[in-house]
Amino acid sequence: MLLKKIFVITVLISIFIKAKCMVIINQTIETAKDKDGNELYFLPGDKLAINECLLNESWAIKSNGGKFYMRMHMDGNLVIYITKEHRFFWSTNTDNTGGKRLCMQEDGDFNIYGLENNVLWSSNTKGKYGIFVILTNCGYLEMYAEYNIKLWENKEYPAPHPKEDEDN
Q1: pTM of the entire structure?
Q2: How far apart are CA 143 and CA 110, in angstroms?
Q3: Angle ∠(56,59,112) on CA atoms, nearest 5
Q4: CB atoms within 10 A of CB 48
Q5: How many Cα atoms occupy the beta-carbon half-sphere of 34 within 13 Å?
Q6: Which key words tag this protein in UniProt (predicted)?
Q7: What string of DSSP letters covers 27-76?
Q8: 24, 41, 52, 68: which could form a disulfide with 139 (CB 3.0–4.6 Å)?
Q9: What is the tens place of the pLDDT at every residue in 78-113?
């Protein structure tokens, strides 16, 4: 009986994953230009789920109300911007580190990885088993576990402003 239940659950999960991929493929991708005129492609939704990553600076995630967006820059820095002005709000302060991707891990850690698969920045939530990270309409990243239990938020770990914004 237990083996049958595991098989049914596995099949349902597989169907869900395939359906989710189909939905993403069929969704319209919103585009915009950043302050330098570079094209941005907004992924559907306002969160990264387990095993999802931001891979390059052309892809971004926008908060549900659209007030903020985040993108992974080619220099390795994850930055949250105020959408209307494309103005800096928060960053991981990992510029010029060679970071190439931001991923929500199966074990609940939320990391920026370099070329050698080394961790350059982390939410330090390994083992807490978060299921997604969401960009809120207040500009914060929040990680949640099942039953909407908040595990982490970036306002507890503020990063200094990037050097380029210190003169403003």
Answers
A1: 0.74
A2: 9
A3: 45
A4: 22
A5: 22
A6: Signal
A7: SPPEEEE-TTS-EEEEPSSSEEETT-EE-STTEEEE-TTSSEEEEE-TTS
A8: 68
A9: 999 999 988 999 999 888 988 889 999 999 999 999
